[in-house]
Amino acid sequence: MKVVLIGYMASGKSAVGKLLAKESLLDFIDLDAYIEAKEKKSIPTIFKENGEIYFRLKEAECLSELLNSKNSFVLSVGGGTPCYGKNMELINTLAQSIFLKASINTLCERLKTGKASRPLVAKISNEKLPEFIGKHLFERTPFYMQSQNSIQTDGFTIAEIVSEIKRVLV
Length: 170
Ligand code: S3P
Description:
Blueprint: E1 2-6, H1 13-24, E2 27-30, H2 31-39, H3 43-50, H4 52-67, E3 73-76, H5 87-94, E4 96-101, H6 104-113, H7 129-144, E5 149-152, H8 158-168
Parallel strand pairs: 1-3, 1-4, 2-3, 4-5
């Protein structure tokens, strides 16, 4: 079984993915960490030294490699992964996809403290974050909505989100 967690930066994909994997006795893979291990560079360094287009190419390559493997896992992808090339089509063909929805407010509060490791928001001031996230979500939501399941995460604990995911998984 392959489960792919989709959602904006700081939507809780990694925290939820780790618990879901533990409870389902599956491996947990974070796509960004997988790319970093392959490239032997952090995500901010890849963006700085090679640029975003190079990152998107590596991201698509690594996603395809994982999805085409025989392994079972819970995979947390980056916030931008579903929005490029045929990534979303590939995810829905080879895995079960779950979109973790969170409000602009929730994402904003979390991103204020987690900006440094995320090159797309690192230079956005805290005051400008809500507008940036709002616009970005407007562009990205149509891709996220192609997921086979959508789960509202605001106001729920990680354990509650995991049990909801287990309920919808087939
Ligand atoms: C990105 C999200 C990041 C990472 C990269 C680009 C994006 O992953 O892939 O910085 O385009 O939204 P997280 O969603 O895990 O922060």
